[in-house]
Amino acid sequence: MDENRPITDWLPITKKEVEKRGWGELDVILISGDAYVDHPAFGTAVIGRIIESEGLKIGVIPQPNWKDDLRDFKKMGKPRLFFGITAGCMDSMVNHYTASKRRRSTDAYTPGGTAGFRPDYATVEYSKILKKLYPDVPILIGGIEASLRRVTHYDYWEDRLFENILQMSGADMLVYGMGEMPLREIMRLLLKGVPFKSIDTVPQTAILRKVDEKIPVNRNWEDIWLNSHEKCLRDKIAFAQNFKHIEQESNKVNAKRILQKSGDYNLVINPPYPPMTEKEIDTSFDLPYTRLPHPKYKKRGSIPAYEMIRFSINMHRGCFGGCSFCTISAHQGKFIASRSEESILKEVEKVTEMPDFKGYISDLGGPSANMYRMKGKVQSICDRCVAPSCIHPVVCSNLDTSHKPMTELYKKVDANPKVKKAFVGSGIRYDLLVDSYNKNNDGSLDEYMEQVVTCHVSGRLKVAPEHTSDNTLKMMRKPSFKHFHEFKKKYDKINKKHGLNQPLIPYFISSHPGSEAEDMANLAAETKDMGFKLEQVQDFTPTPMTVATIAYYTGVHPYTLRPIYTARSPKEKKQQHLFFFWHKKENYHEIRQKLTNMEREDLIEKLIGEKKRFNKQQIIKKKVVIRNNERVGKSRRKKKTRYRR
C-alpha cells in the first residue's frame, strides 16, 4: 500500500470523502457486493471511473449492511441521476455456496476473506431496499449476476425457474455484458435531459414494459419472441427452446431484439453493441486507477481476490470457446476485444512502479490466455455467423489463430529491465496449440509454446481438458482427449529439451451432463496411465445461462431437444467424484465395489493395483464346486473300474 497517496485518488466511499472533494450532491451512487478495489479487474472500479470520466460526481457504497437500520444506504443521500447496483465480480450464490450447496466459510472479495458481508441474491436485495428508501430514484443494475439472470432462468440453489431479474428486483433498467458502451450512452442521454424512463433503445440494455404499453420502436432491429415465462414454468421443453435463441442472439454481430412476456410485463432485451474497438477498450483500461484497495480496509486484512491479480495484466476480453459449462461468452461475448500493445506495455510499466512490486508479473492473459488479437479473417463471414463457438466441433477456417502477436508482446514485456519474470497464469487453450486440431501453418504455435514453457510458466502449467470421454466432451463443446495426449508429448519434449521440471496440471469436471459414472472411471484410469494424480477436480455447478445448466434442469440438450443423462442426486454425484481420488486408500473398497457392480473389473487392477479377486462368499462357492467335481470324478472312476472287471 502506498502510504503517501491522498484519499481523493480513490472514488469516495464515505460522506467525509465526498465533502473532501467539495461536492454537495452526487450524480450517481454505486452499490457493490464486493469491497472497493480500484483496479481494472474489478467491475465497480471500471464503472465508477467511466462515470467519473464523463464529468459526473460518483460515490461508491461497497458491501452495505442490509441487516440493520440501513444507514449505509442513506449515508450519501439521494443521487441526482440514478443508483447503480452490482452484486460484484461473481454471482452472489456462486460466491456463497459450493456445488453441493454447502455455505462457504470465506469470501475472496472481502477484506480478510471474511464471509457474510453481502446477502444472497444481492442485486435483488439491494434494489428492493433502495426502492423502499428512494422510490422516485431510478435504479440501473449490471454485473455478472444481473447479466446472466436477464431472462427466465434456472436457479440451482432454489431448484426452480425464476423470472427475469428486472421483475425480481424492481429495478428500472439492466445493462448486460461488459457495460462501458451502453453506460456511456445512457449518461450522455441523461445529461441531454432525456428522462430515465424514456431511455429504451440503447443497445445492450434490458427494460420492462407493461403488456398494454407499446414496445419501443427501432426500425433497424428485428424482433424475436421467446416462449413466455408462464409457458416455461409449465413446460421444460419450452424453456430449453428459448436458450438457443438467447445464446445465438447474444453472440451475433447483427443480433435481433429479444422479447418475452412475463406476467403483466413484456421484457425487452436490446441487441448488444459490436465488440469494442482497440481504442475503446484501451480507453477503459487507461483510466486513472490506483490499482489498490481503498485505504479503509488496511486494518481488516488483505482481499484474497486482489492479492491474486494485483500484479496481473488483462490483455483482452471475450472467449470464442463457447464451452457448455462456462459463462464467459454469455457475459463478455465470443468475439475477442484486444488492447493495443502500447496500452498493455504502459500498464506493465505502471505495475513495476508499485511500491511492493518484486519484479514478477503474475499473469499476462485474459479469459483464455492465448486468444489475444484472434479474429475472423473476413469480417463479413463473422457478421453472418450464428455458431456459439469458433473452435468446436472444428476450428473455423475463417479464424486467424496466429500466436505471433502474443509471442512478440511477451518478448517486449520480458525486455523491460524492471520485470524479472512475467507468468502466464490464465488458462491456456491447449487445443489451439496442437497441429492435429488447429491446422494453423504459420509456425507460430511451436514458437509460442517454446516461449511460454521456457519463460512464462510459474513452476507448473494448468490446462483444462475437462474430460476423457468423447461423448461428454462433445456435450461440453471441447475437443477429443486424443489432442491432449499430443499436447502433453509436445510439452514434455520442450521441458526435456531445456532441462526443466514443470509438471502439467490438468483440470477435470465431474457430474457434467452427458457424463456417466463409467466415463469417470475410464477418466481416472486413463489419466493415471498418463502419470497424473488428479488434484484439480470440480463438481459441475449449474449457473444461469449455460447449455449445461439447461440440460441439467430439463434433461434435454437445448439445441437438439434430445434426452441427455445428468447426475443429479448427491449419491450419483459422489459416485462420479469418487474415481478422481483412486490414490486414497480409504476409497479402495468403495471403488472396487462400484467397478464390480458396473462389470468393469478390468479397471480395478488399473486404478488400485489389485488383480481380479473373489470375495469370501465367492471363494466358498468355488471350493464347493471343486469338491463336488472331485466327488463326481471319483464316482466315475469307480464305475469305469467295475466295468473293466
Provide tags for this entry:
Transcription Regulator spoIIAA; disordered C terminus; alpha/beta; single chain; 9-stranded mixed beta sheet; 22 strands; 645 residues; 3-stranded parallel beta sheet; globular; 4 domains; Rossmann fold; 25 helices
Q: How would you describe this structure to a colleague?
A:
The chain has 645 residues and is of the alpha/beta class. It folds into 4 domains: 7-207, Cobalamin-binding domain (Rossmann fold), CATH 3.40.50; 311-458, Transcription Regulator spoIIAA, CATH 3.30.750; 459-613, 2-Layer Sandwich (Transcription Regulator spoIIAA), CATH 3.30.750.200; 616-645. Residues 637-645 have low confidence and may be disordered. It has a 9-stranded mixed sheet, sandwiched between helices. Strands 20-21-22 form a 3-stranded parallel sheet. Strands 2-13 form a two-stranded antiparallel sheet. Helices cover 37% and strands 13% of the residues.
Q: Helix coverage percent of residues? A: 25-40%
The gyration radius over C-alpha positions equals: 29 Å
Strand content: 5-15%
Structural class: alpha/beta
The shape, in one word, is globular
Query: Tally the helices: what do you get?
Result: 25
Provide the CATH superfamily of the largest domain. Cobalamin-binding domain
CATH class of the largest domain: Alpha Beta
